[in-house]
Amino acid sequence: MSSSTSTSAPSGISPATLPVTALPGVGAAVAGRLARLGLATIEDLMFHLPARYEDRTTMVPLARLVAGQRALTRGTIAAVDGRAGRRPHLTARLADGRTQILLRFFHPTTRHHRLLVAGGEISVYGEVRLGPHGCEMVHPEIAGAGEESLQEDSLTPVYPVTAGVSVKRLRRLIRLALTHVEALPDLLPPALNDADLSLAQALRLLHAPPLDGPPVAARRRLAQEELLAHQAALVSMRRADRKERAHPCQGTDLLARFLAQLPFQPTAAQHAAIAEIQADLGRAWPMRRLLQGDVGSGKTLVAAAATLIAIDAGYQAAIMAPTELLARQHHKTFAAWFGDLGIPVLPLMRASRASKEARARLAGGEVGLAIGTQALVQEVVAFDRLALVVIDEQHRFGVRQRQALQAKGRIATHWLAMSATPIPRTLAQSLYADLDVSILAERPPGRLPVTTVALPQTRRADVIGRMRRACGAGAKAYWVCPLIEEGESDRLSAVALYDELRQALPGLAVGLLHGRMNPAEKESVMAAFVEGDVQVLVATTVIEVGVDVPSANLLVIENAESLGLAQLHQLRGRVGRGRAQAHCVLLYRAPLGAVAHARLACLRKTDDGFEVAQQDLLLRGAGEIFGDRQSGLPAFRVADLADHAALLPRMRTEAEALTRERGEALSRRWLSVRQELGEA
Question: If both were cysteines, with which of 287, 377, 618, 624 could 280 make a disulfide (CB 3.0 to 4.6 Å apart)?
Answer without folding.
Answer: 287
